[in-house]
Amino acid sequence: MALFLILVLAAVVLGIVGVVVEGLGFLLIIGIVVLVASLALIVVRWSRRSGRRPTR
Question: Is the Cβ–Cβ distance between 20 and 11 less than 8 Å?
Fold first, then answer.
């Protein structure tokens, strides 16, 4: 969970810097890619947890 939060924080910081600083729009794109990757990571982890429960 800490990895997810760090990735989201990095994505937000890159996005803000990309929007504020002129000529660094590529940082906004990198921030969006990092955000999507972190969301994919958390979805994969949640799907693995739900499959491990024993059926009763």
Answer: no
